[in-house]
UniProtKB/TrEMBL annotation:
This is DUF4149 domain-containing protein. It comes from Gordonia amicalis. The keyword Transmembrane applies. Keywords: Membrane, Transmembrane, Transmembrane helix. The chain crosses the membrane at residues 6-27, 47-69, 75-99, 119-141.
Amino acid sequence: MSTAAAVVTALTFVWLGMVVAISFLEAPLKFRAPGVTRPIGLGIGRLVFRALNAAELVWAVAILVAVILGSWPGAAIPTATGVAVAALVVQLIAVRPALTKRSDAVLAGHDGPRSSAHLVYVGVEVIKVAALIWLGAAVLVSAT
């Protein structure tokens, strides 16, 4: 396995594990914990997702660099990389601001209509997870 393939494989599966653990386990479960109110859960979520997104940016850039520098058979690896990175960019630029606006309102005591931004974020998260699985599998297959 080349250095580029090893880097892409490791970072892809670390990224995938973090997204699954935080988005699909921690995020929904924190609201079920005793004593966690909606404002506390939102405050924790904002901190956790800010940290996750910062780490994701680092991993995305490192994967992009390794994919650009590596030699890959076919288009699957660059394409899967592009889908995963594009999903992250959509979340950060298009969806996170709407989620922040909504959580700011809830934390300020306003309980208006629910935002669909959360469902959009989850949908894009599912696309990102699928792209990361595709990317990791494609790199492993190409290394054999």
